[in-house]
Amino acid sequence: MVNYRYLGNSGFKVSEITYGNWVTHASQVENDAAIATVHAALDAGITTFDTADTYANTAAEEVLAEALKGQRREGLEIFTKVYFPIGPMGPNDTGLSRKHIMDGIHGSLRRLNVEYVDLFQAHRYDYETPLEETMQAFADIVRQGKALYIGVSEWTAEQLREGHALAKQLGFQLVSNQPQYSMLHRVIEGKVVPASEELGISQIVWSPMAQGVLSGKYLPGQPVPEGSRATDEKSGANFIQGWLRDEVLTAVQKLKPIAEQAGLTMPQLAIAWVLQNPNVAAALVGASRPEQLADTVKASGVKLEADVMTAIDEALAGVVNDDAEGTYSVSPKSRLV
């Protein structure tokens, strides 16, 4: 079964392996298969589910709602997000203005068929809206009981500090940040993690397997496997391209004997690695088939010894992105519509 961790400086616990439906539901897989993977996640002990209004242009939330129908609401932790364009993409259909945030929470609650979400997240930072306006809207949503906690995604250390200070003034907690983090992508370690540890903010990390590259199935000098994420535009093929360089794939192959010696599969090693960071509350995993989850959940509770962590660093030397400046280029400098 899956272990639980506290989210930020709160009393709220989440499953340390969290099911995310970014590029699967209503996109990569048919609804019946998506529902089957959610049921497999529940059977494996995962009770925390992450989605967003922008995934499949709102359809992913609806599929998740269908998959969770009949489950005890109090036994689930449901996360969603707001920021990116949805619907007809009019001038107020994006960003973190009060209008879009309020429209966002009401739309998500309707599609998810719930009275509240456990965590409502700012999917990016909005440079066009005063932060005070954004945080006041979140404070009102918490007071109205429509979201229990507030988080963000891909905010810089400075943005986290400013958001945390405003949240405190307004009487609610900023408990989480959702950045990309993996053995290959470590840009949050320089500034974001230290600031978060100081502020009592946890990381909920996405792409802990570097879009599947850390599974080891992509081989240097070889065509990408048929049916893999790298061949499917709907499942994020553009996101994986940066990791498909031969020098990266060659380094990743060096992880295989390390995983074997630790008694783990490559996916388990990748997920266990991010969970060694005490600031990480949860690793987001997706699945296109139920059996994939049976493997990944076994990473929960795994303790990697110091020599294993060192061996991983040595294997990936020269191909890891650990430039802290990378955190400053994720949020768009202007709205997308």
TrEMBL record:
Keywords: NADP, Oxidoreductase
Domain spans labelled NADP-dependent oxidoreductase: 17-316
Assigned GO CC terms: cytosol
GO annotation, biological process: methylglyoxal catabolic process
GO molecular function (one): oxidoreductase activity
Entry's family note: Belongs to the shaker potassium channel beta subunit family.
Protein name per Swiss-Prot or TrEMBL: Aldo/keto reductase
Native species: Microbacterium paludicola
Organism taxonomic ancestry: Bacteria, Bacillati, Actinomycetota, Actinomycetes, Micrococcales
